Amino acid sequence: MSTPIYSAHPTMFADEPGRFILACLLIPVGVGIIWLLVWYIINRSTHVIIDDERISLRRGVFSKESVDVEMSSIRTVRVDQTFIDRIFDCGILKVYTAGDNPDLEQGGLPDPTRLRMALRTARESGI
Q1: Strand order of the sheet with strand 47-50?
Q2: Alpha helix stretches (DSSP H) within 1-127
Q3: What number is the average pLDDT over the span 26-30?
Q4: Where does the pLDDT of residue 122 fall: very low under 50, low under 70, confident under 90, or very high at 90 and above?
Q5: In the Cβ-directed half-sphere of 96, how many Cα atoms lie within 13 Å?
Q6: Distance (Å, rounded) from C-alpha 79 to C-alpha 20?
Q7: What is the chain's alpha carbon radius of gyration, rounded to the nearest angstrom?
Q8: Region 65-71: what's the mean pLDDT?
Q9: Which residue in 15, 25, 56, 100 has the fewest CB atoms around it within 10 Å?
């Protein structure tokens, strides 16, 4: 595996600020701290890596899911941002190889401008 061009975990607050605020409001009840802890562990166990050869998505704590998409098989890449995502500078990565459904999809990734540039650089170096 070559040196990663982009490597990131999803953000918590920026991805879903309403959910984060609700969890913080529930801290005095005791439920909020457990909710935040579980959410933090899930976010830390999700990792997107882009290098010259592939895009890799790894997620899971006890059961693991691993998705690798070779740069040569990518048909379309989308980085979507909602209004809230634009405010907090995060986005949703969707990678299509064939068909109408994305083969790889992950929300809450920080710095979508750097993500786009990393994908463009990786795709151009593989040509």
Answers
A1: 6-8, 47-50, 54-59, 65-70
A2: 17-25, 31-44, 83-88, 112-125
A3: 91
A4: confident
A5: 10
A6: 23
A7: 16
A8: 94
A9: 100
Give the pLDDT score at 127: 57
Q: Could you read off the pLDDT of 83-118 as tens digits, one per residue?
A: 999 999 999 999 999 888 999 999 999 999 999 899
Are the C-beta atoms of 121 and 23 separated by less than 8 Å? no
| Residue 6 burial by Cβ neighbours in a 10 Å radius (0-12, 13-18, 19+) | buried
CA distance 59 to 113: 23
Measure the CA–CA gap between 47 and 27, rounded to whole angstroms.
27
DSSP state of 10: P
**Rounded mean pLDDT of 11-39?**
91
* pTM score: 0.86
Q: Please, which residues have CB within 8 angstroms of residue 80's CB and are 6 or more apart in sequence?
A: 91, 92, 94
Domains of the chain, start order = 7-125 (2.30.29)
Question: CA nearest 2: which of 46, 36, 49, 47?
Answer: 49
